[in-house]
Design brief:
Length: about 350
């Protein structure tokens, strides 16, 4: 895959990762691939019946993209273990991050999960969670974090990243710059965190710095408004948090994704045009829209319109497409797993 050879329609689609309905290659899913030209899809419980079915679905997605002269797709899933695990038995079920106490625990999770995802044709895991829940807090993330100590979270997360990626699965560390201190669920509404940047750097950012140092393929942004960094915009729509902090200050050169833009924190407060304009301006690579519906096409149209009329946004999209292409070339095209065809 070469970013410079993509049409503007393909460039626009590459910046979307979307959810869909059904357990097989339906007409709606074909439309997302051949017409919207999405860069990736994400699987949920509604898409999963068995290992064989998931394998067939993933193969059919990649083969259909190939038949349409489209780049291969990221195929992602949230497989953290515990309360957030889309793949159930006979896939291996883990008790979750709080139960991962040693590097051996983390390595075992990364190896087994990575192997099973790769065999199914999935190439990206929206894990590990790198948030830190302060001890004694009523954190919304209490059941999903490795613990209360940033250094421990960093060590466990680093090991998971290494072992997922060793098995051909792109690891996406989340939720930058950290949601462990929040108690309001961003699925419902927009949480605010008043911590200053210095406080966030001394606590929340420690695991993410480790994830960057260990070449995590991607980082997912939270839907939290960190008023000490950017009083106006949540992280997923913030230039200050993505471009200034994550890209420039921390030096992250990999893939940056939003969390699901259908969540109440975003959908209740911003229209899709505003959302996409912020995404384009903030050096976010991929917008995640997890529910089928008109928002997907509206987002594609907003991206396409922006890059056709604004030279700066076009160049930003070329930069994003290069980051996307680098990962697809490494993880999907050069090292096919789970029945993908080498391109």
């Amino acid at each position: 895959m070469h970013a410079e050879s993509l049409t503007t329609a393909q460039l626009a689609g590459q910046r979307l990762m979307v959810g869909f309905s059904g357990t097989e290659l339906s007409g709606d899913l074909k439309f997302l691939i051949d017409t919207v030209k999405v860069g990736g899809v994400i699987l949920f419980a509604r898409n999963i019946q068995s290992p064989a079915q998931v394998g067939n679905l993933c193969r059919s997605i990649q083969n259909y993209a190939l038949s349409c002269s489209q780049p291969p797709l990221f195929i992602a899933v949230d497989q953290e273990g515990g309360v957030v695990a889309r793949l159930k038995a006979p896939f291996t079920e883990f008790p979750g991050n709080p139960a991962i106490q040693t590097e051996n625990d983390a390595a075992r999770f990364g190896d087994i999960t990575g192997h099973e995802l790769a065999d199914a044709g999935i190439n990206m895991n929206m894990a590990p969670v790198m948030d830190v829940a302060p001890e004694g807090s009523k954190s919304i993330m209490a059941e999903r974090v490795f613990g209360h100590d940033p250094e421990h979270v960093a060590q466990m997360g680093k090991t998971v990243i290494r072992h997922l990626q060793k098995n051909g699965i792109m690891a996406v560390a989340k939720h930058f710059p950290g949601i462990g201190k929040t108690s309001l669920d961003s699925h419902l509404d927009l949480p605010t965190l008043a911590s200053e940047l210095s406080e966030i750097e001394a606590f929340d950012l420690i695991p993410f710095k480790t994830a960057i140092a260990n070449q995590a393929a991607g980082i997912m942004l939270s839907h939290i408004r960190y008023t000490g960094i950017d009083p106006d915009w949540p992280a997923s729509l913030s230039f200050e948090i993505t471009a200034a902090l994550l890209r420039r200050k921390l030096g992250f050169k990999g893939l940056v994704l939003t969390d699901d833009l259908d969540m109440g924190a975003i959908a209740k407060h911003y229209d899709i045009y505003t959302i996409i304009q912020r995404v384009l301006q903030s050096t976010v690579d991929m917008a995640l829209i997890c529910h089928p519906g008109p928002a997907i096409e509206a987002a594609r149209d907003a991206i396409h319109g922006g890059i056709k009329t604004n030279r700066h946004l076009y160049q930003q999209t070329i930069n994003s497409a290069k980051r996307i292409a680098a990962l697809k070339n490494h993880y999907i095209i050069q090292k096919p797993r789970g029945g993908h065809e080498t391109r």
